[in-house]
Amino acid sequence: MSVNTGKPDAPIKYNTTMGFFLRLIKEKPLGTIGAVIVLIFVLVAILANVLAPYGYAQIHIADKLSAPSAQYLLGTDNLGRDILSRIIYGARISLIVGILGTLLSTLVSVVLGITTGFLGGKFDFVVQRLVDAWMCFPALIILLTVMSILGPGLLQIIIVLGVAMGIGGSRIIRSAVIGIRENMYVSAAEVVGCSTWETLTRHIFRNISAAIIVLFSTNIGSVILSEASLSFLGYGIPPPTPSWGSMISGPGRTYMLVAPWMGLWPGIALGLVIWGTNMFGDAVRDLLDPRLKGGVGRYGNFKIKHVVKQKKSGLLDTSK
Amino acid sequence: MSRYLTRRLLLVIPTLFFVSLMVFFSIRLLPGNIIDTMVADMGSGGSAVINRAEIMHELGLDAPIHVQYGRWIWGLLHGNIGNSLITHRPALELIWERLPVSLELGVLAIFFTAILSFPLGVWSAIRQDTISDYIGRSVAVAFIAIPGFWIGTMIWVYPSIWWNWSPSVIYVPLVQNPIENLKMFLLPAFIIGMMSTGGMMRWIRTMMLETLRQDYIRTAWSKGLTERVVIIRHALKNSLIPVITVFGYQVPMLVGGSVIIEQIFSLPGIGRLMLESLLKRDYTVVTAINLFVAIVVLVTNILVDMTYGWLDPRIRYK
């Protein structure tokens, strides 16, 4: 891959799913690693009951607080439950919260963003001040207050996270809609008599679909992390359901000096999954964001300058 | 500039109105339930200890809703956010006591964010899609991915097992013993700084990448300027403007992050007060903290927007 050969790489059609993944592998090695991590995470969550050696609430009281061994690969907790099995089932909780929470938040963002961006006027003004007001509250503070009133639970957490994150994300959709609304073809569609609904679905929605995918893929990591944070503080998923966040708090902290593995492994699992979703999300954004297109590779001038420098010093072969 | 400023300040009024509504209604979402749960929390003798009518009155729940709201706003205008349901002390006083801790933590965290995210972001951008960029971005995303509460917990565990060392828990005010105080704050501040570095670094990288594709950068290269001058004087300076605004928007995140970190490191700040009040169901204090934090964020956002207008001549002369 070089600028100076004058022969461009064969273009990959990326408007197909297959082409998208080909480009991902070709251009975004980190994104590919992220995608692999996400894939493993999803598979583990789906196949939890096949993969887990024990049940998540199965108690081996004689073996409580035992260190990682052949029998319990990652050790057991203070009740003698197998940590590995709990992490595997915990993946299920994280996946459910991650997907449903992000779907809900994306839906909220899209509905709010499209209506305000497309309709504009007083309606937009009022809603935007509401969003402003909402954004004044740090996410965790809102989540804690609402969860403390609603009480802990899976459904509550999905709804609260979905709505809370959705309102913030509506700004991104709104600005995308406003950008598209200014285009000539939208006015043209209106002039030739397209109904508002038709304009919305055929012109606006299709053009913001990239923004929606980006929003979804970048939000999923923070939804999973927020659930873990809330569960860590005791306002998330109630026991005995294994949530990675609550495994680190509670007994995980009480016994942390006796059985450090209780808190260690769930954190590593959480970190890996969030890292993977973020890396994958970034790659998706880079591949779909038209503003970042054009200068694939390093920014053009810098590259040329270096090539010149290397030519002078006879080091050209080190360029990739 | 003055027109922009006036417009910006006028917009605060409706926002502030909605903020007040949200804070006001958040506590009144389930008015009956709050007292019931409070009584239940008190145990068997709860109903005897707690006087229902008194609490109803204290929360102002014995009047029609618009009267309640009016009263509450009137109180606010007189500097009265409400009293704690447990200790009966003014909530504002409680917040004021805890403020220095949170403020110090926040300032230190911003400092760490800045010294971590700028070098990482700029380096990643000028070496886009090379090994350096991959390492820089992996590190930044790892900062986001490693949960603050987990690393905060692990810092208590492993150093203590390996070296018999653990962070100090006795809070020493800055004025009393600055060195002991800093010893206590550096670690939690670094963790919070780490949490917001990930986002900041990626912003700086994206902004730099966009700036680096501008015509004036090509001009700067063509003039034969050194890489250092092009990057720092031409590219970084111009991509700094949006980055500064993002820095301002990090404030809510810092506050959120400090809730957990203050808890783990037993720092008596506002975040800890929030958790304590939630646990005791001291909802007047929770409301007061919500309102206080919202106003702090609102004011920072205005300041950030003003800086934006001041930094960017295109906005200044509009």
Description:
The complex is a heterodimer of chains A (320) and B (318). With 320 residues, chain A is an all-alpha fold. Chain A has 13 helices and no strands. Chain A has helices spanning 17-27, 29-46, 48-51, 83-119, 121-135, 139-150, 154-181, 184-191, 196-232, 244-248, 251-254, 261-288, 300-312. Chain A is elongated, with a radius of gyration of 24 Å. Chain A starts with 16 loop residues before the first helix and ends in an 8-residue tail after the last helix. In chain A, 45% of the residues are buried. Chain B is an all-alpha fold and 318 residues long. Chain B contains 14 helices and no strands. In chain B, helix 6 (91-126) packs across helix 9, helix 6 (91-126) runs antiparallel to helix 11 (227-264) and helix 10 crosses helix 11. The chains are: A mainly alpha (320), B mainly alpha (318). Chains A and B meet through helix 5, helix 6, helix 9, helix 12 and helix 13 of A and helix 1, helix 7, helix 8, helix 9 and helix 10 of B.
Topology:
The complex is a heterodimer of chains A (320) and B (318).
Chain A: H1 17-27, H2 29-46, H3 48-51, H4 83-119, H5 121-135, H6 139-150, H7 154-181, H8 184-191, H9 196-232, H10 244-248, H11 251-254, H12 261-288, H13 300-312
Chain B: H1 2-28, H2 31-41, H3 46-49, H4 52-58, H5 65-77, H6 91-126, H7 131-145, H8 148-163, H9 178-212, H10 215-222, H11 227-264, H12 270-279, H13 283-311, H14 313-316
Rg over C-alpha atoms of chain A, rounded to the nearest angstrom: 24 Å
Strand content of chain B: under 5%
Give the overall form of chain A. Answer: elongated
Query: How many strands, what sense, and barrel or not for the largest sheet of chain A?
Result: none
Report the count of strand segments of chain A: 0
Whole-angstrom Rg of chain B: 24 Å
Quick description:
Chain A has 320 residues and is an all-alpha fold. Chain A has helices spanning 17-27, 29-46, 48-51, 83-119, 121-135, 139-150, 154-181, 184-191, 196-232, 244-248, 251-254, 261-288, 300-312.
